[in-house]
Design brief:
Number of helices: 6
Structural class: alpha/beta
Radius of gyration: 18 Å
Shape: globular
Order of helices and strands: EHEEEHEEEEEEEHEHEHEH
Oligomer: single chain
Strand content: 25-35%
Largest sheet: 5 strands, mixed, barrel
Length: about 250
């Protein structure tokens, strides 16, 4: 039976799941921490990707090559963009966008810069064929994974579906956060999901990210590391629902 690969960037986003595994076995996955075992009777691989887009892409590719998973679930903490969400709320990433992939308009020398005028830039899906591959500006989640995530009974906070923004950036400027939310539809931001989604698109592996708000500058709520465990519990329920659906 092919496993589900579940990824998170930090110990706070992966250790609870690793400790919950039965028949747990550490695995060498390049230079990334990885543990395989069983969760609720199904094979699962937990990968700590470390923070950032390059780490997420590389570790996701290695995990797909090594384990040939039936799906990849990325989960963890994030910073809120939507004004109606607070720390502890969860966003099911119906789609994810790379906030760092931007095409800016042409401007003459001396015309100045506008950091929020760019449009999303399409990113290439890798392939072995000659010529350029398909380009995507947003990466849609697998419909079955979204459906089973939405079916999780969760009472510890609000659960919504929407767009998650990724990038090697931690935005604290309220005007920029509002611009991203209003123009790109971002509900929350983090630093890994879009990179993992791009790799999964190349391999044809079903992908979903679920992110809990660990902080939100919109409401002046500081980072709370404890939210990482709550998101792992939600992710466990998603994986269980997905296996029950696909058995």
């Amino acid at each position: 039976m092919r496993p589900i690969v579940c990824t998170g960037a930090m110990d706070a986003e992966t250790l609870w799941l690793m400790d919950a595994l039965e028949n747990a076995e550490p695995v060498t996955l390049g230079c990334w921490k990885c543990v395989q075992g069983e969760l609720d009777g199904y094979p699962v691989v937990i990968v700590r990707t470390n923070q950032g887009m390059a780490n997420a892409a590389a570790s996701t590719a290695l995990a797909i090559e090594r384990f040939a998973p039936c799906a990849v679930l990325n989960q963890g903490t994030s910073g809120g963009h939507a004004p109606d969400l607070h720390t502890g709320d969860i966003v099911i990433g119906a789609q994810v966008i790379n906030m760092g992939a931007v095409r800016t308009p042409e401007r003459a020398r001396g015309a100045g810069i506008d950091p929020v005028c760019g449009e999303p830039l399409g990113l290439e899906i890798a392939n072995t064929q000659p010529g350029d591959g398909e380009k995507k500006t947003v990466f849609a989640a697998d419909a079955d994974l979204v459906r089973v995530a939405a079916a999780v009974c969760w009472t510890e906070g609000t659960v919504v579906q929407g767009t998650i923004g990724s990038g090697d950036v931690w935005n604290n400027e309220l005007d920029r956060i509002a611009w991203l939310h209003e123009n790109w539809g971002t509900m929350t931001e983090e630093m890994e999901a879009a990179a993992s989604a791009q790799i999964c698109a190349a391999y044809g592996v079903p992908f979903l990210t679920v992110r809990i708000l660990s902080n939100t500058a919109v409401h002046g709520e500081p980072f709370d590391e404890r939210t990482g465990e709550a998101c792992q519990k939600f992710a466990r329920a998603v994986m269980r629902n997905y296996r029950e659906l696909t058995d």
